[in-house]
Amino acid sequence: MLYRGMDRAALDAAYNNTAAVGLAKRDAYVADRTARSDAFRRRHAGRIDVPYGTGARQRLDVFPCGRPGAPTLVFIHGGYWQLNDKEPYAFVGEAALPTGFNVVQVEYTLAPTARLDQIVTEVRSAVSWVIEHAKEFGGDPGRVFVSGSSAGGHLTAAAMTDARLAGGIAISGLYDLEPIRLNYLNEKLGLDPAEAERNSPIHHLPDRAAPLIVTVGLDELPELIRQSDEYWKAWQGHGLSGRYVPIAGHDHFSILEELARPDGRLFAALKTLAGA
Fold first, then answer.
1. pLDDT in tens, 189-232
2. Superfamily the domain 8-275 falls into
3. Domain boundary assignment for the chain
4. What gap in Å lies between CA 238 and CA 203, rounded to an integer?
């Protein structure tokens, strides 16, 4: 057995989110998100493809809400560090932008072009860029919040080492990368034991950090739920503040609606963080 009583086939299945919901349902989610994101980008003028570094994918989109001193939501897309772009995730701002949050969508170099060490460094640089340039788009540098789902949840946790952040929402993240190193995902990631360990947020909790919301859908794969539960316990046990918000009735893809919808529970948590 490779990990927690699982052989390679079981470990592959334990992290295959597409298989868990079915390809047709996953494709329907993608089509809906893409259409909504395209509409969002047509409706709202933004600063598109702003570079935060020199790489081709080291860029971000900034959608200002138009209110001076507004809080800012930085969103990091998922895709197991190997897939996706920022553009189809603009829909995440559907509730936040009209409510008075600036919205920033981050892109980063994907594996196998980049190793995970580089990806984490890029995302931290992007978050730093947003904090340092927030005033240029009407933002309050003291009220920058970071969020992301799946691999973006992992990268959210990695970004929380920046003590200047005002808070974060890590959605369905991966916080211990040892099982990732041992399953099919590592064919492109190429993690060795040392790189997996140093990029596992559960092993490198910050000494101080803003409040973090750790959340996962209770219809997700058991390994995803376990990862979130154990990371929250480690975060709390380290004396750090926040909340654990497991949400019934959501799978790995649908849970993002709780941030995108005006009545969503994660959007309510974001507003509470911003109010605090």
1. 999 999 999 999 999 999 999 999 999 999 999 999 999 999 99
2. Alpha/Beta hydrolase fold, catalytic domain (3.40.50.1820)
3. 8-275
4. 11
Per-residue pLDDT of 157-190, as tens digits, reads 999 999 999 999 999 999 999 999 999 999 999 9
Give the model's pLDDT for residue 64: 98
Map 22-37 to HEC letters.
CHHHHHHHHHHHHHHH
**61 within 8 A of 33, measured Cβ to Cβ:** no
| Contact of 171 with 151, CB cutoff 8 Å | no
Q: What are phi and psi of 172, to 5 degrees?
A: 50, 45
Question: Whole-structure pTM over 0.90, yes or no?
Answer: yes
What was the pLDDT predicted at 276?
A: 57
Rounded to whole angstroms, the Cα distance separating 273 from 215 reads 15
For the CA atoms of 42, 47, 52, 53, what is the dihedral angle to 10 degrees?
Answer: 80
Alpha carbon distance 240, 62 (integer Å): 30
Question: Which among 188, 128, 116, 184 is positioned nearest to 155, based on CA atoms?
Answer: 116
Give the confidence band of 51 by pLDDT, cuts at 50, 70, 90: very high
The whole-angstrom separation of Cα 191 and Cα 188 is 9
If we measure between CA atoms, which residue out of 195, 204, 197, 201 comes closest to residue 214?
Answer: 201
**Residue whose entry in the numeric block shows the structure tokens 């490198």:** 204
